[in-house]
Each structure stands twice: as structure tokens, then as C-alpha cells.
Amino acid sequence: MSKGFLVSLEGPEGAGKTSVLEALLPILEEKGVVVLRTREPGGVLIGEKIREVILNPSHTQMDAKTELLLYIASRRQHLVEKVLPALEAGKLVIMDRFIDSSVAYQGFGRGLDIEAIDWLNQFATDGLKPDLTLYFDIEVEEGLARIAANSDREVNRLDLEGLDLHKKVRQGYLSLLDKEGSRIVKIDASFPLEQVVETTKAVLFDRMGLVK
């Protein structure tokens, strides 16, 4: 049983997860919370190498099952090398994307078998799920417009996908929300950043038993 607390951040492209996390980190540190911030795919050397392959804009020929298996491989290495040791050390681990991304993107988005994805996630994580998943929800068109307006953000292969895939991904997340509402909390990401940060902080502090 892990001693730490595992939080995953999920959402469609352009939902602002990274911006919210950057605003939250100093607040958590002021509370004396030891935080490990990490991301998928990536987080460790092998994971980052796999990330380069998955998100390379020139790899448009990548098969959907290849994409899924690369994500799963990165997930496993990241978990055993970085996430589990941090949890055992009692840290708050905040992951930018985790198991739900595979269901939303490769399941609903790419049309791969959900049961197969669930099995692969189970296999890769030994059944580990986040204590809390914060799902940042935004209309697809608004999220993609944010990306287009942000010249500093990396443009990856998924950003180049058509509108239809991104809409399927959002529906996937909403389906997961209906299915696992006790673990997944929806945050309306369409509001100004400061408001989204405050909402996220309230949810996180409540789940962790921190004084606001």
C-alpha cells in the first residue's frame, strides 16, 4: 500500500492542465507538501525517448495499435522508475496524463477495443489507479484555438489530428466521468485561469484533507 497520494490531470488538448499545475505547485509547497510533478508519456529517460517517437509530427503513418503499445511501454517504465518510489516515500505525485488518456485517445479517439486497453493498463500498472483524477473539460474548438494562439507550446502529432478525433476524445473523457465519478472530478476549464486554479485547489485540498 503506497503512503503517498497520486493525482492525475486529464483533459482534451488545450484544456490548460499545465498552466493550472504550474500555479498550484508553489501553493502546495507553501503548505509543506512534498510534490513530484511528472508527465506521460515521458517522466524518465526511456519514457522521454518513447515520447519523441509518439508525438513526432512527422510520424503520421503510425498505426493506432503501435501508438497504444508505445504509450503503455512508457507508462510501465515511468511507474516503476519514478512514480512508485515517490509514493512509497510519501510524496504527492501529480501526473500530467495517466491511464484515462489511453481510454480516451486510443479507445474512443482511435476506435480500439476498450477492454483490451483496460487490460493493458492493468498489466502495466499492476492495477494502480489515481487517488484523484482532475478532468479539465473544455469545448474542443476552444481548446484547439488556445493551442493555435500559444506560440510557445510545442505542436505535436496529436495537435495535427482532425476535429472529429478530438471530439471523440472529449466524449471518451465524459464517459469515464460517468463511470468513475467518485475518482474523477470535472473542472470547467473554460473559465479564466485564476478561477480554474481556485476550483482545482479547493477540490485537491478537500481530498487531501489540507486546510485552505
Q: What's the quick description here?
A:
The chain is of the alpha/beta class and 212 residues long. It contains 8 helices and 5 strands; from the N terminus they run βαβααβααβααβα. A 5-stranded parallel sheet has the order 2-3-1-4-5, sandwiched between helices.
Tell me about this structure.
The protein is an alpha/beta fold and 212 residues long. 55% of the residues lie in helices and 13% in strands. The protein contains 8 helices and 5 strands. It has a 5-stranded parallel β-sheet, with helices on both faces. Helix 2 (45-55) packs antiparallel against helix 3, helix 4 packs antiparallel against helix 5 (114-125) and helix 4 (99-109) crosses helix 7 (163-179). The longest helix has 25 residues, at 64-88.
